[in-house]
Recover the amino acids of this structure.
């Protein structure tokens, strides 16, 4: 039986199936073929009547059309979908483009209707092979072949970048950030095309920081010490009118130990816990808070990019050279916590570390502590800060934990949580049906 895994998990379409293989399928006619040899007792049972849509021989089918198989007088036992997708460069060399993800589908409770979970590759030759069995055990096979509409140059949705990247180990606060090269207006369909699966299942949801950027965040921090996979079934999704995704992608990363740093700014210290046990207390100096800019923000920060050496120039955050409060200083071991210029970094020049807040808004550390923080933290680790009157904005860097779960969920295009246990996404990826 072909379809989604595991069988015990049901999607909105019905009972989930086992993983669908993209095996090569021999071409046969579009008429059903019946094979005997069953062991059933109903010797006079009629053959199963199979039907497949799109129809056999159809041309330029919209890629976001669902594949449906129905059976009358029996149950569907197998469906295979072969997609021969050839991109322009590969076609010149006669090589097919690889696809990391298989097509899967969902069978209804009666076993009489199968619907594809994902969209079809644009500009492809599609072969659908369906098999069903009547009560006498006789099998019927039906094959349909058709082609899909090619994506138009300039209207081909591509993945521009993603965070994290495959193979990375990240902290428990890590969001999944997907950047596209073109604006997305059909956000619900695109959200439903990206399935997040973790070893420890949890509720999560997508939000959009712009028409080109989707962000997945779980309801709570990830459980540590587990693997996470993101299957992006983007090929064939109609991201905007006439704009189709052209490739599928798979992202795999690890969630490492749980490192959480906490600071109550008036206390001039940072406390580090790892997997719930206190690891280190670090003296700090935070923002002097003479104005909003140099006030360290309160809220849940996620550690972002890091630099062993960095020139901190106030002109990059809107304070030109020569203006009041401007600065230009070289620092070591800088770890970004916002897009508005906040870092945790070495500041050997600051004699107030551990006793007073005198920085321009960053968290200043002594050299040895800054080196330890730089070497022992991961992208995605959490810094929880309290004690100031400047609230960290949810869309400032990776401030996504600043939205409550109810706010985050309500701002998802689907409005429903995605459970990361492999049970599928909340809704359909197909267009109007």
């Amino acid at each position: 039986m072909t379809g989604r895994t595991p069988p015990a998990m049901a999607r909105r379409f019905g009972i989930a199936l086992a993983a669908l293989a993209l095996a090569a399928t021999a071409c046969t006619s579009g008429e059903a073929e019946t094979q005997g040899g069953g062991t059933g007792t109903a010797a006079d049972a009629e053959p199963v009547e199979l039907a497949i849509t799109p129809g056999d021989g159809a041309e330029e089918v919209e890629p976001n059309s669902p594949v449906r198989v129905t059976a009358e007088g029996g149950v569907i036992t197998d469906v295979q979908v072969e997609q021969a997708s050839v991109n322009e460069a590969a076609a010149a060399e006669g090589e097919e483009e690889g696809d990391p993800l298989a097509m899967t589908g969902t069978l209804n409770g009666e076993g009489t209707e199968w619907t594809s979970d994902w969209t079809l590759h644009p500009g492809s030759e599609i072969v659908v092979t369906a098999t069903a069995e009547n009560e006498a055990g006789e099998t019927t096979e039906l094959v349909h072949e058709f082609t899909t509409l090619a994506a138009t140059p300039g209207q081909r949705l591509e993945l521009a970048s993603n965070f994290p990247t495959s193979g990375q180990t990240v902290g428990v606060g890590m969001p999944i950030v997907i950047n596209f090269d073109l604006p997305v207006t059909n956000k619900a369909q695109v959200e439903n095309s990206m399935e997040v699966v973790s070893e420890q299942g949890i509720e999560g949801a997508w939000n959009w920081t712009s028409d080109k950027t989707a962000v997945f965040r779980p309801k709570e921090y990830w459980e540590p010490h587990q693997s996470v996979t993101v299957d992006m079934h983007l090929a064939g999704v109609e991201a905007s009118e006439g704009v189709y995704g052209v490739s599928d992608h798979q992202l795999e990363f690890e969630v490492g130990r749980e490192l959480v740093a906490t600071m109550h700014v008036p206390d001039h210290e940072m406390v580090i816990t790892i997997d719930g046990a206190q690891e280190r207390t670090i003296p700090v100096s935070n923002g002097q808070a003479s104005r909003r800019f140099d006030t360290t923000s309160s809220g849940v920060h996620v550690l972002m990019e890091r630099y062993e050496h960095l020139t901190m120039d106030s002109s990059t955050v809107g304070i030109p050279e020569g203006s009041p409060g401007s600065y230009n200083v070289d620092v070591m071991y800088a770890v970004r916590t916002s897009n508005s210029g906040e870092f945790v970094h070495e500041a050997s020049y600051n004699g107030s570390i551990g006793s007073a807040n005198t920085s321009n808004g960053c968290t200043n550390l002594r050299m040895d502590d800054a080196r330890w923080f730089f070497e022992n933290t991961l992208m995605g680790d959490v810094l929880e800060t309290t004690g100031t009157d400047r609230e960290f904005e949810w869309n400032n860097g990776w401030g996504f934990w600043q939205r409550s779960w109810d706010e985050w969920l309500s701002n998802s295009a689907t409005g429903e949580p995605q459970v990361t246990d492999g049970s599928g996404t909340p809704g359909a990826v197909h267009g109007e049906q």
Remarks:
- The radius of gyration is 27 Å.
- Helices lie at 88-93, 187-192, 367-376, 405-410.
- The chain has a mean pLDDT of 89.
- The first strand starts at residue 10 and ends at 11.
